[in-house]
Amino acid sequence: MQFKQRLMIVLLMSAIVLVGCAPTTSIVGTQENSQATATGNAAQPPRNITLEFWNFADFATGPGGELVQQFIDEYEAANPGVTVELVGKPDTEIEAGVIAGASAGELPDVFANAYNSGYAVSNAGAVKDVSEWWDALPEDYRSQFSLAAVEALQRDGKMYGVPYTLYSTVLYRNLTVLREAGIDPDAEIKDWDDWMSQMQKVSEAGYTALPNYTLDGWLVLHYLGGVEGVQNGVENGKWTVTTEQLAKAYAFLKSARQYGTDISPFDASATDLFITDKLAFYSMGPWANPTFAEAAANNALDYDYVLIPGETANHAGGVHGGEFLAITPGPHAEEAFKFAAFLADKTQMTRFAAALGRANFNAAAMADPTVAENPLIKLTGESAAQGMNDAAYFVPFPLSIRQPLSNYAIEAVEGRMSVEEAANGAIKEINDILASD
Amino acid sequence: MVTSTRRFRRNYLKHYLLLAPFFIFFTIFFLWPILYGLGMSVTKWDGVHQPIFVGVANYVNVIGSKGFALGISHLALFIIIAIPLGVLVALGLAIMVSRFRGFWYNFFQGAYFLPFVVPVFLAAVIWRWMFTPDYGIINVGLRLIGVERVRWLNDPNFMIPALVIVDLWRAAGFNVILLLAGIKAIPKDYYEAAHVDGATPWQEAIYITIPLLEPILFLVIVNAFISVFQIFDTPWLLSRSDYNTQGGPGRGMLFPVMDIMGRAFGSQKFGEAAAYAMILLAITLVVTLIQFALRRRLRSNR
């Protein structure tokens, strides 16, 4: 055989082998495409891959878990030989588990993670750069996501995952309590002053206006987000929130305290008070809604949700954040990426949003008529456009800064410090934490 | 030489084999982690990148930190309140229960032990509800006797007392079982003789039960100290701690092990966390040695 012929045969065989091994990421976009993947895989030798998927607890149990499991079943059916094991964990446990697992070499294949802990998990070496696979996806697929969510995942030419879900806090209002207090629920709450006068009326009518939002730093952010011009970030190693801005939030919480209760919004007793028509206002993320919706259906709870009022009428309060699907370095990383891309695709995210009333970063899914008219998702979108982000993303920004944020809020509200002193103290301590990190 | 090896095999090998599992497990699960932690405590390590030797800097950072001062002061306060109270309550209950026979003996024994087997997370949820400022059953009860609302889990001044209540509820049952076993082992003759001499139940408890229970009481006290130094799950759940924030409002329920968790998994400062753990180990060791020395002195004086 001539050398040229031999070379041709070698090249041809190499090409066949390469085509067989080529990543199939270009066809993970839709459910239909996943079926195409299955057809393609039929000719391949049988695989036996098990992917471990750590998801947030509320998307791994109950209705959220059932839906995600349905997506998994569909993915497995379309990809013979691939099994996905769904493991539900609270968000902080995912972060800690991944960081501990990175040093021990024990990681899930794919995990849902908050953007606010993106730096910690990527710095721990637990997140694989998926830019090569992401870039290989069709433009149609990539452009379906919110650009900001994609850009937040890109650092120094790397891509740290696939955009997934988002949250933004809203204000739940018990309309029965408002009516009893002589407040017209249809009248919009313009700003903090307007809201405070409503709280006073609620209190005078013998009801409780608001739980205690000083007991946790993340809760303080609901109201700090209402201060005009506030930015939750870090610049030159310092927190970008000014003493004046934080003092305004503390002052609001101090005024609200006289009409509220000491119960933490995280406690079941707070939601129980709301459901039993004793509490007028409750700000929280969209995950609180299923409980209230169930109470509305079973116990005739009359409630709605609106934007959390801000300092002025121009700017709503609230805090928002997002989650992404991270792929860990490992032998099944490419398959894990395919699964993540499938999960975050419009088909799944539309069903996810429509069924659970939870927003996500898939803009195409959010624009789908079955989702776009969902009032809570619509409000989540409006709230996320205002308010403040829950952290600076993919930069050193320890969430432990929330501890002094809460501690000094309590000092101010209890009257042991003036709001200015408390704001000063909090910012100094937060800057110390940022410096030590 | 051969003879001595044979003699060793015949006479001693079985004893060494008997002890071997303990020494193997002790080395793997106790000694090695301590040595590894000691090594880690002198490095700056985020769990991923290469550790950097920093000498005693971690120890200096930990001891100089606000969290350390808070954690240790809470621990000291908890020891002062919870251990004497816990031992006294358990002893009182054990003496009372020991006076019952048959059904009631078994009933009270089971009833007091029940909280110990209730999962901590479940207990914490129930207690958080009961401690609720305005509507919790404890404050409702207190209001009936004229005590204004107590912010058990929101006011740092009340957070340790709240923890003592929960700890007492949980731990008393376990100690009651230990003490009841001790009381049962006391010969009946002493009580019969005391009864003949006209001793009251109080005198029986003071002059017979407590002195003869000394070995069990010592065990209960040492165990209580060691448990308190390691206290973690109950305050963690009651204060709704996570890896980023520990101890609840004003860090009023911060304890050393919680701080260690936060430093390791929240801030990825594994070196500092290890240094803190070494300090805690040293304190626990010193306190336990003092207890043994005191006991020896008390015995020799007797």
Structural notes for this entry:
The complex is a heterodimer of chains A (about 425) and B (about 300). Chain A has 21 helices and 13 strands. Chain A is of the alpha/beta class. Chain A has two domains: about 40-160 and about 320-380, Periplasmic binding protein-like II (D-Maltodextrin-Binding Protein, domain 2), CATH 3.40.190.10; about 170-320 and about 390-435, D-Maltodextrin-Binding Protein, domain 2. In chain A, the strands form four sheets. In chain A, strands 1, 2, 3, 6, 12 and 13 form a six-stranded mixed beta sheet that branches. In chain A, strands 10-7-11 form a three-stranded antiparallel beta sheet. The N and C termini of chain A lie far apart (about 65 Å). The model of chain A is unreliable at about 1-5 and about 5-40 (pLDDT under 50). By secondary structure, chain B is mainly alpha-helical. Chain B folds into two domains: about 1-40, no CATH class; about 65-300, MetI-like fold (Orthogonal Bundle), CATH 1.10.3720.10. In chain B, strand 1 (about 45) and strand 2 (about 50-55) form a beta hairpin. In chain B, helix 3 (about 65-100) packs antiparallel against helix 10 (about 215-230). The longest helix of chain B has about 40 residues, at about 1-40. Chain B is flat. In chain B, about 35% of the residues are buried. At the A-B interface, helix 4, helix 13 and helix 20 of A face helix 5 and helix 12 of B.
